[in-house]
UniProtKB/TrEMBL annotation, chain B:
<keyword id="KW-0067">ATP-binding</keyword>
<keyword id="KW-1278">Translocase</keyword>
<dbReference type="InterPro" id="IPR027417">
    <property type="entry name" value="P-loop_NTPase"/>
</dbReference>
<comment type="similarity">
    <text>Belongs to the ABC transporter superfamily.</text>
</comment>
<keyword id="KW-0813">Transport</keyword>
<dbReference type="GO" id="GO:0005524">
    <property type="term" value="F:ATP binding"/>
</dbReference>
<feature type="domain" description="ABC transporter">
    <location>
        <begin position="1"/>
        <end position="235"/>
    </location>
</feature>
<keyword id="KW-0997">Cell inner membrane</keyword>
<dbReference type="InterPro" id="IPR017871">
    <property type="entry name" value="ABC_transporter-like_CS"/>
</dbReference>
<protein>
    <submittedName>
        <fullName>ATP-binding cassette domain-containing protein</fullName>
    </submittedName>
</protein>
<dbReference type="InterPro" id="IPR050093">
    <property type="entry name" value="ABC_SmlMolc_Importer"/>
</dbReference>
<keyword id="KW-0472">Membrane</keyword>
<keyword id="KW-0547">Nucleotide-binding</keyword>
<dbReference type="Pfam" id="PF00005">
    <property type="entry name" value="ABC_tran"/>
</dbReference>
<dbReference type="InterPro" id="IPR003439">
    <property type="entry name" value="ABC_transporter-like_ATP-bd"/>
</dbReference>
<keyword id="KW-1003">Cell membrane</keyword>
<dbReference type="InterPro" id="IPR003593">
    <property type="entry name" value="AAA+_ATPase"/>
</dbReference>
Length: 542, 238
């Protein structure tokens, strides 16, 4: 930080990273714009497009409402019951959907709520005919709640656990009834967290791809992202894909603007473990209600996961493991995941370091300030231009050069790296800032620079966040279906794509076995990265 | 330019968005100088300018008669000990001290003997293999002192080195610092908020107020001053 030559190298490396991201995204958008040609009068006002937009917003709104509404009582119950046996396992269970590939979660939900699922079988036993259908709006909502409710509950729980113990003592001393306690003590905290949490869930649901593709069940329940995919892969209608992509960018842009205005910084420490004594927990009624909500959470989240494991174990795992297609898909998935994680962590590290170096002076020039701002913004660019839109742009850009499948590995690696970048940035930026504050002056004073600094100081101290970021990026890439869906071919099959294909061709036993493989693989990577650290980045695209 | 002076600050201006600091002073070689003043008076900035962490907007910093403009912190004849975070937490004590000899940790057998010797001088024999987290605050500061010893720089800057220590430890560290200073014959500038440190350790005092050096006196004269309100507040005279 204090050696001009080293600063120049650091800033140049970060500028290359930033330039690479901007180029990749801009080329995709340019391709969409230039290929749009003559839209015709009806392209943007097509009834289908408006129906898809309406459905996208409707399902996102309902998913958010349900996720938040269920998260509040569950978070309150867990906050009140701070010490029951197995509490830590309930919290761990609630963290699982975050590390789980979306497709695996969807399969688990089908096992419970699907036509042959546990619930329908039980209801059929009572003489009811097909009472629940998981396909369509209901299934989408169910899946979105399964993935997002635990995330919101954990955010709310962290907020409730930060309430000072004096508040509870005062409330007990004053004899506050439960309603007053909620209104004057808990609600102010939840209200502060609500806009950010709800905004995040809405964003994740509005850009949801895999779940809608799997559980949508047809054009009647299609989101913009799925419609883009269908326009390119099935209808060969680039004009429609372009119109939808433009719509998606406008919508996500507006959502991000709203989110930036309302979001509050989510808590880093999700479970502090040192909860205050809750005097309001000592009544029989609250005990009953809390037990009910905690049991509901356990069953709602645990049942699909258990079903995935159960049906996976019933599959012929040995045969699957020996299947050359599965082995090739596994290797392809791992190669793509390693490549995208390396790219993502490399770019993020270079950009964060460069932004820190550019602004670590008394008089920060406007250009350095703009550079640091661009670094932060570009790390979240994929939220504005979602993977399917990026894929659509590159699909159209590469089409004139022959079979787009030839470029698939590079494009999928790049898109997956961009997908992971917001989370990786969120993990690495605070860790690197703290590390820099602790060591920059000391290393400068002792003359520890360049490779020696990397070897002796930076890598050992940042090992944990780097590993966490790397494993999270790998898990995200391993579970991704979005980029592969557009570019996948017979030559490039990943595990999620193979799983999706087997689900589509009703080879359910194979699908269950593959889901178990994939789920375990992702969980192992997530656990490796978070071993010894309770902090997990919030939110991932469902 | 006077090579007899350890540090000279000539018309040094540091400009912030809403405030400006101005330093003009010459510190003679060989003494212990207490740098005192209220919080926000500019003590740390003064240190950062001397150590090379900040470049002045105007003026010149000279150390032992040589101008320091554009010199990286590690190229200056200065060792710095901060209030905390002086040690790399993931590296053992001997390795932390070893950086004082070689920033790339290329250490010979002779260097390792020097490290052990320095640790012995600060009373930490056989601590070499331990990690910083297993040491007390006072012991960690002693390790930083050991590293400064092996670096052999003529100027030592101490930024509130006793801030986190209890009274017993402070007294022990003061005695150690005095002994090492006499053995090394270096110049020490030490930021402190405690009049006791000034009385027990300093030969002279640089006193800052609102970004200016308003007093630079031998310690006896400084302790008798009653003419400046800020000094009175520091000494507890009001």
């Amino acid at each position: 930080m204090f050696a001009p030559a080293e600063n120049r190298i650091t800033i140049t490396a970060g500028a290359f990273g930033l330039g690479g991201i901007l180029l990749f995204v801009c080329l995709a958008i340019t391709a969409l714009l230039f290929q749009s040609g003559d839209f015709g009068d009806d392209a943007l006002f097509d009834a289908y497009i408006w129906r898809v937009t309406r459905f996208t917003l409707l399902q996102a709104s309902l998913s958010t409402l349900l996720s938040v509404a269920l998260a509040i009582p569950i978070a309150r119950a867990l906050a009140r019951r701070a010490t029951f046996p197995g509490r830590v396992w309930v919290l761990r269970l609630m963290a699982l959907p975050l590390g789980l590939p979306v497709l695996v979660g969807a399969l688990g939900l089908i096992e419970i709520w699907g036509r042959q699922g546990v619930l329908n079988t039980a209801l059929a036993g009572l003489g009811l005919k097909q009472p629940v259908s998981i396909y369509g709006l209901f299934g989408i909502l169910l899946a979105h709640v399964f993935f997002n409710m635990p995330l919101v509950a954990r955010l709310f729980l962290a907020g409730l656990e930060r309430i000072p113990s004096e508040y509870w003592r005062t409330a007990a001393n004053l004899g506050m009834p439960p309603a007053a306690l909620f209104r004057f003590v808990e609600w102010p905290v939840l209200r502060g967290l609500l806009p950010g949490a709800a905004g995040l869930v809405f964003m994740l649901c509005a850009t949801s791809f895999t779940l809608v593709l799997t559980l949508g069940g047809g054009p009647a329940a299609s989101t913009i992202e799925v419609a883009i995919y269908q326009a390119l892969r099935f209808d060969f209608d680039p004009q429609r894909a372009i119109a939808l992509s433009a719509l998606q960018i406008v919508m996500t842009g507006a959502l991000l603007l709203v989110l930036a205005r309302v979001a509050t910084e989510p808590a880093q420490s999700v479970t502090g473990g040192r909860a205050s004594r809750r005097y309001d927990a000592e009544t029989g009624l609250s005990g009953l209600s809390d037990t009910g909500w905690i049991l509901f959470a356990l069953v709602f989240i645990g049942a699909p996961l258990t079903a995935v494991v159960g049906s996976g174990l019933r599959a012929d795992l040995m045969k699957l493991a020996g299947d050359p297609t599965v082995r090739r898909a596994l290797l392809t998935s791992i190669a793509i995941a390693v490549g995208s994680a390396l790219l993502c962590v490399g770019i993020a590290t270079a950009m964060i370091r460069a932004a820190g170096t550019a602004t670590a002076r008394r008089h920060v020039p406007p250009v350095a300030r703009a550079f640091a701002g661009a670094v932060t913004a570009s790390s979240s660019l994929v939220l504005l231009v979602p993977p399917v839109v990026l894929g659509a742009g590159w699909f159209l850009l590469l089409r004139p050069f022959g079979d787009v499948a030839r470029f698939a590995p590079a494009i999928v690696v790049a898109i997956n790296a961009l997908m992971a970048l917001p989370f990786v940035h969120r993990i690495l930026a605070p860790a690197m800032a703290t590390h820099a504050a602790r060591t920059d002056r000391l290393t400068a004073s002792l003359g520890i620079r360049g490779f020696q600094r990397l070897r002796w100081i930076d890598l050992p101290a940042l090992k944990k966040p780097l590993l966490m970021a790397f494993s999270f990026a790998m898990a995200l890439s391993l579970g991704d279906l979005g980029a592969v869906a557009l570019f996948g071919s017979q030559d490039m099959v990943t595990l999620p794509w193979l799983l999706y294909s087997r689900m589509g061709s009703y080879r359910t036993a194979d699908a269950a076995g593959l889901a178990l493989f994939l789920g375990l693989l992702c969980l192992i990577f997530t656990m490796l990265g978070t071993a010894g650290d309770r902090r997990v980045p919030e939110g991932r695209n469902a | 330019m006077n090579p007899e002076n350890a540090v000279e600050l000539v018309g040094v201006d540091i400009l912030y968005d809403t405030t400006a600091l101005h330093f003009d002073c010459a510190v003679a070689s060989g003494g212990i100088v207490a740098v005192a003043g209220a919080s926000g008076s500019g003590k740390s900035t003064l240190f950062h300018v001397i150590a090379g962490f900040e470049e002045p907007d105007r003026g010149e910093v000279r150390i032992l008669g040589k101008t320091m403009s554009g010199q990286a912190p590690s190229e200056r004849p200065v060792s710095v000990i901060f209030q905390d975070n002086n040690l790399f937490a993931h590296l053992d004590i001997a390795t932390n001290v070893g950086f004082g000899i070689s920033p790339s940790l290329r250490l010979s057998t002779g260097d390792r003997v020097r490290i052990d010797d320095a640790l012995g001088r600060v009373g930490l024999d056989r601590f070499g293999k331990r990690l910083p987290s297993t040491l007390s605050g006072g012991e960690r500061q002693r390790v930083a002192l050991a590293r400064a010893l092996v670096r052999h720089r003529p100027l030592l800057l101490l930024d509130e080195p006793f801030a986190a220590l209890d009274p017993g430890m402070r007294s022990g560290m003061r005695a150690l610092l005095r002994d090492l200073h006499e053995q090394e014959n270096n110049t020490i500038l030490m930021i402190t908020h405690h009049p006791d440190d000034v009385r027990a350790l300093a030969d002279s005092v640089l006193f800052l107020d609102q970004g200016r050096i308003i007093a630079h006196d031998p310690v006896e004269r400084f302790l008798e001053r009653r003419d400046v309100a800020a000094i009175n507040r520091f000494l507890g005279n009001e």
